[in-house]
User: Fold this.
Amino acid sequence: MTAAVTIRPCTAEDCDAVVALWTACGLVVPWNNPAADFTLALSKSSSTVLAAIDDGGRIVGTAMVGQDGHRGWIYYVAVDPALQGQGLGRRMVAEAEGWLTAAGMPKVQLLVRETNQRVLAFYERLGYARSPVTMMQKWLTNPSP
Ligand SMILES: CC(C)(COP(=O)(O)OP(=O)(O)OC[C@H]1O[C@@H](n2cnc3c(N)ncnc32)[C@H](O)[C@@H]1OP(=O)(O)O)[C@@H](O)C(=O)NCCC(=O)NCCS
Assistant:
């Protein structure tokens, strides 16, 4: 099934389908506006959202990827629940890593919510290791409604 999938950067027209996928995958939380996240990522040359498209033209996977001038970051890795366990998640992360390598980034980092600990095993299978750091954060604008 995933052999027929092609991967390309998203365009603005993909927003609704991408947000629907993120919602189906449990990645949407009240303090983030996923459509605003999507639009912001597409508005910068330093970031994008990669999408996997099946042979029917449907978006079945995503990975948001970007670099901050020091490190590469991956967000919103998602695979259609009906297609999980067939290697597409691994492929999306590999595509994002390739994007970052092409951008000259020496390291890739990602965040896993404390409520989503079961995904740690997925990233460990892909060669990721837990980092001995504590993330701190502060909103610079009000979170989007
Ligand atoms: C996490 C997610 C993207 C994985 O996608 P997937 O297509 O099911 O993963 P793959 O089939 O490519 O799996 C890659 C490897 O990880 C392993 N793996 C996947 N999920 C795993 C899990 N929960 N526990 C242990 N191993 C897992 C697979 O067995 C596979 O191993 P192998 O290639 O060595 O045989 C998908 O489950 C998903 O969309 N989850 C909901 C959204 C989410 O939590 N995203 C991450 C936010 S940080």
About this structure: The chain has one domain: 2-125.
